[in-house]
Structures are given as structure tokens and as C-alpha cells.
């Protein structure tokens, strides 16, 4: 990736001479939009002019061949006005009711404006479990990947209608970071009511200065994060820093920029004020490292010579190449891959549980369809969910 020279604020923690990434170099981008930017609270409606300008930016990226996902807040903010709910914090059941009403308007609005640019929108509602529990994680990852293969733009939100206090994110900054890591995005954009990270909360300290580049999120950076800025936003700078830790540890760059401008992505491209959070990794390598070393294997797949050779050429593992299944595991669990000589070839997240894997091993796709009574997944382990010993 090419870069432009930029020197961090010398008063900023962890300040070093760094290089600022070039926005147009990124190819898979997650954009998070907060409620305060999207919803006119006084009138209980979407800020259509602003949203249209953002979609214009998205369409420009889309035309360049970028894959774009949007994590959009706003359902509760829209629904609470329609239902006449009071200002201030809502009880859980009121939040769920507001989300149920507001999500309809939110999704329809995104679909209509994207459609004006010839782009199809797909609604994806996630809970905490969808990004934490591996079987559901694989399902969600597969859905997002297929939508982007079909040139659609996923519009993602937390499923507030069913999420409870104990099993929810509570803010879309961290949800967006989890989506970015799950989808192996190389950039996460957090559009905010502030144009970046400052040396101190600018509302409290008039001498606070913007930090343009954060090479690494350390204790000093965490210490200067403030709290939420409005009742429509359940996040604040603190949650954005948490999102940055999630994203950068998984190989995804992150940028915080103001959404209080028309065409906010274009503004970043043109060098507008923002804060970049850098990663030294890349999403594919970070994900494979996680698979290789951070997960406890639940079983073993023994492969034939042809399958081992195919994997080393970059192919996915097909059931036909599996000769024996050991252990009890569920879909999404990590398993060890061993060649005919018993040596470990690699590890991966398996697409079938142990019972089904044992049934379909050694079988071709037509045979599997006949056995399962329908079209199943063609790969036992997709190459993106696999880390080989040579990697």
C-alpha cells in the first residue's frame, strides 16, 4: 500500500514519524454510521440530504471495485419518535419495541437511496453471539461474503429486537470492528460527531489538538478517551478506541472522521481532518494466525496425498480428500489436518460437524447432495478458514 508522509502531533502519546494510508488503496471497507449523524431527532426522520451524499461516496467506491459494508445505527432513534417514547435512557423492552418499528424505516431508506445508484442493499441483523460463537460466526461471514460477491452492500445493525442487556454490544462501534474482522476488511471507517482523537476532550480543553495518526493503541491513548456525546449515541471515544483495538489486532486499519459534512468519505480521500489507527498486520494473515494458534482443536481430519497437494496450491479442502475423521466437533470448531504420513499439514474451521463430516468424507459433490437430500456446502474447510503449516 502506498502512503503519504505524516508526522503525529509531537504532544501525542506514542507519537512517532509515521505514514498515513491512502484511502483509495483499500478494497474491502466497513463504514459505521451513528444515530446522531443519521437521524434528525427533533423531527424523527432520516437526514436524507446527508445520507444521499454518503451513498454517493459509497457508489464511487463501488464503481472502483471496492467491497463496502455499512454498520448503520438509527433504528431505535427512529422508532422511539414514531412510538412517542420520552427522551433519555429507555427501558430494555422500550428499546426493543423502538428497534422493531425503526428498523423497517431504516432498511427501506438505505435500499431506496442505494437503489438510485443501481446498488442492491442487503439487511443483516447480528447479535453478540453471531460474532463470538464460531458456528454462527461462520454463517454470518459466509452471508456477508456472498452478498459482496453478488455486488450488494450489506446494511448491518445489531438485532436490538431480541438482544438483551447481558448479550449485546450496546454500541455499533465495537460491532463494526467485529464485522470488519469477521469479513477480513482492510479498513474500518467510523463516522462520528468529532473529526478524530484529540489530546484531550476538546469540549473540556480548548488547547486540545488533533492526533492525525496513532501507530499503536497503548495505555496513554486509552486514557485520553472521553465518554458519549449525545443521547442518540450509545458510544463515545472510549468505545471507538475499543473498536480500534479489535480492528488493528486483526489486521484492519481504522480511521475516525467527522460525519457532520456532506460527502464525508470524499473529505477523507481529499485529506480532511481525521485520525488513522494503524496496524502492522493484514486481515488474512492475522486471521490465519488466530486459527493456527489461538483455537483449541476439537478433532482431526486425515487427508489423502491429492488433498494435501491441492491445499498447498491454495485450494479449499473438499470432502473427497478426507479419508478419516477423529473426534467430536461442531460446525465452526477448529480441527487439525494431517497427511497420509500422520504429519500435521495445518488447521482450519470445519464447515460440518463430526457426524456429517464422517458421512460425506471421500464423497463427491453429487454424492453428497444425494445423501443430504439437497445441496450442502461444497468445501469441508474453505481456504479462508485454514492455516497451513508453511504459512
UniProtKB/TrEMBL annotation:
GO terms for cellular component: cytosol. It is found in: Cytoplasm. Residues 299-381 form the PUA domain. Coiled coil: none annotated. Substrate binds at residues 73, 160, 172. GO terms for biological process: L-proline biosynthetic process. It comes from the Bacteria. GO terms for molecular function: ATP binding; glutamate 5-kinase activity; RNA binding. PROSITE patterns: GLUTAMATE_5_KINASE, PUA. InterPro entries: AceGlu_kinase-like_sf, Asp/Glu/Uridylate_kinase, G5K_ProB, Glu/AcGlu_kinase, Glu_5kinase, Glu_5kinase/COase_Synthase, Glutamate_5-kinase_CS, PUA. ATP binds at residues 32, 192-193. Keywords: Amino-acid biosynthesis, ATP-binding, Cytoplasm, Kinase, Nucleotide-binding, Proline biosynthesis, Transferase. Its EC number is 2.7.2.11. The keyword Transferase applies. Pathway: Amino-acid biosynthesis; L-proline biosynthesis; L-glutamate 5-semialdehyde from L-glutamate: step 1/2. It catalyses: L-glutamate + ATP = L-glutamyl 5-phosphate + ADP. Catalyzes the transfer of a phosphate group to glutamate to form L-glutamate 5-phosphate. Belongs to the glutamate 5-kinase family. This is Glutamate 5-kinase. It comes from Xanthobacter autotrophicus.
Amino acid at each position: 500500500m502506498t502512503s503519504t508522509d505524516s508526522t503525529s502531533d509531537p504532544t501525542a502519546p506514542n507519537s512517532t514519524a509515521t505514514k498515513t494510508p491512502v484511502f483509495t488503496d483499500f478494497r474491502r471497507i466497513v463504514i459505521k454510521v451513528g444515530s446522531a449523524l443519521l437521524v434528525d431527532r427533533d423531527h424523527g426522520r432520516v437526514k436524507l440530504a446527508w445520507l444521499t451524499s454518503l451513498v454517493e461516496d459509497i457508489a464511487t467506491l463501488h464503481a472502483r471495485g471496492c467491497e463496502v459494508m455499512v454498520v448503520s445505527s438509527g433504528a431505535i432513534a427512529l422508532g422511539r419518535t414514531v412510538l412517542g417514547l420520552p427522551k433519555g435512557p429507555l427501558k430494555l423492552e422500550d428499546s426493543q419495541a423502538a428497534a422493531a418499528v425503526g428498523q423497517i424505516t431504516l432498511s427501506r431508506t438505505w435500499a431506496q437511496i442505494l437503489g438510485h445508484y443501481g446498488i442492491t442493499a442487503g439487511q443483516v441483523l447480528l447479535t453478540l453471539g453471531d460474532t463470538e460463537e464460531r458456528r454462527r460466526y461462520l454463517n454470518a461471514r459466509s452471508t456477508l461474503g456472498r452478498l459482496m460477491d453478488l455486488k450488494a452492500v450489506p446494511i448491518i445493525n445489531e438485532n436490538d429486537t431480541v438482544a438483551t442487556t447481558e448479550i449485546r454490544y450496546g454500541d455499533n462501534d465495537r460491532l463494526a470492528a467485529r464485522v470488519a474482522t469477521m469479513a477480513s476488511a482492510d479498513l474500518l471507517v467510523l463516522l462520528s460527531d468529532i473529526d478524530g482523537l484529540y489530546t484531550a476532550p476538546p469540549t473540556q480543553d480548548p488547547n486540545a489538538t488533533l492526533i492525525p495518526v496513532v501507530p499503536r493503541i497503548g495505555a496513554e491513548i486509552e486514557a485520553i478517551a472521553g465518554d458519549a456525546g449525545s443521547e442518540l449515541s450509545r458510544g463515545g471515544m472510549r468505545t471507538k478506541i475499543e473498536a480500534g483495538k479489535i480492528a488493528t489486532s486483526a489486521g484492519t486499519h481504522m480511521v475516525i472522521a467527522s460525519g457532520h459534512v456532506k460527502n464525508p468519505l470524499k473529505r477523507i480521500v481529499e485529506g480532511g481532518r481525521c485520525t488513522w489507527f494503524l496496524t502492522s498486520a493484514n486481515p488474512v494473515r492475522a486471521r490465519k494466525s488466530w486459527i493456527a494458534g489461538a483455537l483449541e482443536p476439537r478433532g482431526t481430519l486425515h487427508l489423502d496425498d491429492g488433498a494435501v497437494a491441492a491445499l498447498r496450491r491454495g485450494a479449499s479442502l473438499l470432502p473427497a480428500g478426507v479419508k478419516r475423521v477423529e473426534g467430536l466437533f461442531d460446525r465452526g470448531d477448529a480441527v487439525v489436518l494431517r497427511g497420509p504420513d500422520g504429519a500435521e499439514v495445518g488447521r482450519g474451521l470445519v464447515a460440518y460437524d463430526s457426524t456429517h463430516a464422517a458421512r460425506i468424507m471421500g464423497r463427491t459433490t453429487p454424492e453428497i447432495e444425494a445423501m443430504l437430500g439437497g445441496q450442502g456446502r461444497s468445501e469441508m474447510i474453505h481456504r479462508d478458514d485454514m492455516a497451513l503449516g508453511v504459512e
